[in-house]
Every structure is written in structure tokens, then in C-alpha cells.
């Protein structure tokens, strides 16, 4: 199973709506399938030209390792060299800061991931969670 | 000036609508700003995982060289080695087949480009043109 | 809008003049458009052969993230892994040290960036600011 | 010995002047030292964002192989696979089409190369030759 384009568009719309209401900076939202390929991406006017790469990388990294950003951060704290190596392997598409969120179905199946870049990392993540929940799906951030 | 996210979404919606009515294979549509960065991208369910790269590359190439796919194809026919070199310089993000379409404003200003991949190249291009025109913008394909 | 070649040449001339009068090492100056492509570059005799890449990278990084070197440095101090990832994504074209300066018009519009390499980072930056101001434009360094 | 920044600036000024008088498209001119590093580069307003890479690549290729574009073209005609391999080795910075011109001193010493992109290849080359000769140096194109 994989996230559908319709679900991805719902997520993007709701995430950007969340950011707009909260007064966030312009955001870029990327939705990836479980294989790490982009399903949909939207960059708001004024969001910098590197943001698509960062947003995609945030989602790619959590999928690539099957870990949340917080788990990756803990692993990097435990072994900075591990992070250096996997970051190089992935061409930089691995992040420790929040903003890459795994997406699961109601039954727990992995459907993909959402990455957001543009504001503070926790705000990016909050927008991703709002988008995922608006699509009736489960957001996995690793936050307790 | 650059294409806005709202214009990009209109283009994507109308391009996919065109493909659906025409019975095309699932499509991936990428909309890029004049500097070659993605503004919005949508991959229909069933469109392969390399399609985002191909769609993005089609749009990138026409922007990078300021030439239509047909002009690039004529240049490549005249000098295959020229194409080999520029394709390597651009990391493969240059195509000679149709499906990358420059977008201009009513006053002729370059706003970006649309790239589509998924069906026959001329069908990809037709969907891009339909999308661009639905947004009230001018599509430049180089076709006579 | 984008910086013009004429403005870029004025910036380069004034930056090198500043460096000469201040007794700086030979400098390399790169002027980039808002999309991160080079408009003009000059490397003074005796400036090492990697300086064009460094000067270009300093300007590229502040444009790519829409942040000053000081903001990037603060972000990297907060999360070294964030910097590792974005530096890899950008192929190294992101710097935390001063010397990449955003260029805005009198009305505040982003026109591009200037990157200088060759002397101490704060001297590189001072030369960039001198160049930008000589062109009647606004330099954004993030320094208080 | 290497070309100086002053010589490079003279070359660029005269090459762009030649293009302007001849009614060429906007040009990008790159001047490289014998080691293949950029000394100076200028991109006229309206010249596409990939032109700096193409102009630099044209100059880089003739230096990298120590051959003119025409010699490289003859070699590529003799063995297309040779060209494919060296183009890949150089990351695309090798061209068979005219527009990369070796620069020699009056005594025949290699000082660098000039690459121009933006108009027809022979026009690009003519502008490079005009620039090099304006600096009192010898242009080597391989044309008979």
C-alpha cells in the first residue's frame, strides 16, 4: 500500500492551512511514498529554492532508516560518525531535526512520509501532523 | 517574476484532467520556477517512481538552455556530442523529447516551465499545454 | 527581478578596490542571481584555484536557505546534524562563516547575493558590503 | 604563467562588445587559467542560467585535453566512445562544438582558455577570438 495522490493533496492543503492560520513562514511540503519517491510537493510563494530538497530530505530520511527524526537524533548523539556516514550515503537526505513525519494507515501499515521545511522545526512538524490527521491517517513523530 | 503556487496548482489540476479525459496513462506533472526549482509536483497513482525526476528534468532542461525540446532535439541531431555534454553538466536533467514546456505571461515574460512524464511524449506535452492555458498563461513548445 | 551584469560589475570593482586599499589578500568575488546562478565572477591574481567555488558557495548558501551566514551559524550550533545534511544536499555550497551577503533593492526585493573568499571571513564580508553599497544596493549580513 | 585578471577583463569586455555590435544573443563568457579554474566570468542579462556551466565547460575541455574543439570533434568522430568516456570523466565539461578557445602568449606559452555560450557556436567562437586579440594575445581555435 502507498499513500494516494488524493490523500497527499489533502495533507498538503491542510498543512499549508495550518501554517497560514498559525502565522508560519512560507512552507514547502513534500509527500513521499514508502519507497522514498515524491507523490506531491508544494512550495508556497516566498519559500526559498532549496526548501524542496530539504522538505523531501526530511521525509526521505525517516523512511530510509525506518526511524523518526527523534530516533535519528538519538542515534546521532550516540554516534556522530554513524550520522555522518548515513547522511553521506543518502546524499544529505537524512535529518535529525523534526519535520519528517511517518504516515501510517488506521491499521498501522506504513503508507509514506511527509516532510516540511520553512519555519522552526517543531512548527514544520506540527503542520505535517495537522495535514496527516486531516487525511484521516496516523502521524508518527516519535514525540512523547 | 515567477509562477505562483496557485498558478502551478491550476496547471497541475487541468493537466491531469486533460490526461484523464483523453485516457492517458497515469502522469507526473512538475512545475518549476525560472531558476529551475520545483514549485509544485503531483504524481498520479500508478505513475512510476522515477517519473518525478523525468518530469522535473523535462522542465529543467528547457529552462537551463532557454530552448524548447524541439530546439534541443535539432541541436542534438546536429551535434550529438553537444547533447552528451550538456546532459552530463545538468545531471541528465535535459530532454529532447516533448513534454517540457516553457511558460510565459501574457506580456511574454518567462515565468517557469512545466514537465510531464507518463504517456507518449506528445500526449505529455498536450497535457502540459492544456494545463498552462487553463491558468491563462502562454505555453511555448516550439511546435509549428 | 535580478541583479544586472552592470550592477554585478560595479560590485566586483568596488569590492576589489576595498580589498586593495585595506591590504587584503587577493580576493575572489562571485555575484549570483536569486536562483543561485552566477552573473559575474572575478579572481585576483594569486587567489587560489578553489576560491571561485568557495566564493560561489558562500553566496549560494545564503540564497538557498534564505538565511544570513550568522543565522546559518546559529542553526548549525543548535543542530550540527542539520548543517551536515543541508551541506550535503547543496554539494558543500553552504557556509557558516561570513562572506556571503544577500543583496536587496532599495524597496527590499531580493536581487541575488555576493560571495567573497581570500582573506579573513570578516574582511571578505566587509569587501562585499563595500561593493554592494557602491552599487546603491542594500547588503544583508545579519550582523548587528 | 597564467592569464591575469586584467587580461581576462579585457577579453570579456571586447568579446561582449563584439557580440553586441554583431547582434548576437546575450552571451556568457568564461576565462580560465591553465589549470582549468575560472579567472573571470560574465553573463549578460537574459543569458540562461546554465550558460555559465556551458561556457566554463567549453574552455575547460580544450584545456583538459590540450586540444581544440575541432580536434576533439575529430577524435569524437573517430571514436564516439572515447568522447563519451572523457565527457563523463570531466562531468560534461568537454565540448566538440566551437566556442572554447585556447589562449597563448606572443611567445607561444599557454595562458588559459576562453569559453563562450549563447549564440551559434561559430559566433560564440568569433566573440572569443575578438576578445583574446583585443588583449594582445593569440587565439587558438583549430580552424584553418
UniProtKB/TrEMBL annotation, chains A, B, C, D:
It holds the Pfam family HbpS-like. Signal peptide: none annotated. It comes from the Bacteria. InterPro entries: GlcG_carb_metab_protein (IPR052517), PduO/GlcC-like (IPR005624), PduO/GlcC-like_sf (IPR038084). This is Heme-binding protein. It comes from Prauserella cavernicola.
